Amino acid sequence: MNYQLYLKQLLEATIKNNASDLHISEGHPPVMRISRKLTFLTKENPLTAEDAQGISFALMSEEQINDFVKEKEIDFSYNFEGRARFRVNIFYQMGTVSAALRLVPERIRSLEELRMPVRLHQFCEYTQGFVLVVGPSSHGKSTTLAAMIDEINHTRAAHILTIEDPIEYVFKDDKSMINQRELHLDTLSFAKALKSTFREDPDVIMVGEMRDNETMATAITAAETGHLVFATLHTNSAGQTIHRIVDNFQGDQQSQIRAQLASSLVGIISQRLVPAIGGGVVPACEIMFNTPAISNLIRDNKIYEIPLVIETSSEAGMVSLNRSLSELVRKGIVDIENAVKYSNNPRELRKLI
């Protein structure tokens, strides 16, 4: 098999079918994820271990192959003939090589095109503070962040600095100047790159993912010292996000982190991509702004009261996830079964509907 040619055919098919992911693994044909559902390419032959390795190695340089063999897994971005980018993870399973590729569209879509709530534009207007986009894996956090960063790029002159693993969306300078740093290629760690930003004169900083308390502490400090900081976390709600950040620190540090969050946090967007009636997916969002009431709850460690404040603060632009889901059902965009499946509180959602 000509692995380079076969890889090209698979990537072209992924783009043509508007699939979000492509999976390569021994024992079955290539698999695509289309509208959140796995689709086996049954017209293709099942891949042997040699096939899976050959296709995976066709994605990598010699240096990357050496790193992969040594570390047993690798993350990187792959530019496909200037037509599309893929976020790639290659790994071993049962002693054989497998690959997962996430398609990153070449064009960055706007918040309107993504069908995101209009309130998200407000987060792009701040000049200082901490904005978090959270949610489960593969639910569009990076795409939402890219749309918000690109809106800033088109609306004001700012130095935007991103730290990513790997770089997904490539921004084109408009009114802003944008520098994008990739983990392992341009920097050794998120924390080290974040500390360096204090000497790089950024106005806006985007952290692809906060993985440790050093990165979290530095991101919060950057937000306190005059920067607008965007970051992501794999959490399910605004309240859980604050818990996750605070719990990353030792007991004697937690009150300080809560105080810093209470003063520097702008807001949290928690999103899900829910299957829509008729195909495709649509976002459902919980939106929390850091009002004085929210700030006091964070400072006083009464985070468990945050959901109630979100539910009763629609005049401040806040929306609960259940409220967002029920609105999608009311408009006939999502069916009740799928809405309930993606809710954090199905019983409450059924009452709302």
Protein model, in words:
The protein folds into 2 domains: 102 residues, Beta-Lactamase; 233 residues, Rossmann fold (3-Layer(aba) Sandwich), CATH 3.40.50.300. The protein has 14 helices and 13 strands. The mean pLDDT is 95. Helix 12 crosses helix 14. It has 353 residues and is an alpha/beta fold. The strands form 2 sheets. It has a 7-stranded mixed sheet with strand order 9-8-10-11-7-12-13, sandwiched between helices. Strands 3-2-1-6-5-4 form a 6-stranded antiparallel sheet.
Determine the oligomeric state from the structure: single chain
The CATH class name of the largest domain reads Alpha Beta
Order of helices and strands: HEEEHHEEEHEHEEHEHEHHEEHHHHH
Strand percentage: 15-25%
The number of E-state strands comes to: 13
Helix proportion: 25-40%
Mean pLDDT: 95
Describe the sheet with the most strands.
7 strands, mixed
Can you name the CATH architecture of the largest domain?
A: 3-Layer(aba) Sandwich
Shape: globular
User: What is the H level of CATH, i.e. the homologous superfamily of the largest domain?
Assistant: P-loop containing nucleotide triphosphate hydrolases
- The assigned structural class equals alpha/beta
Calculate Rg over CA atoms. 21 Å
Unreliable spans are none
CATH topology-level name of the largest domain: Rossmann fold
| Lateral strand order in the biggest sheet | 9-8-10-11-7-12-13
Keywords:
353 residues; alpha/beta; 7-stranded mixed sheet; 13 strands; 38% helix; 25% strand
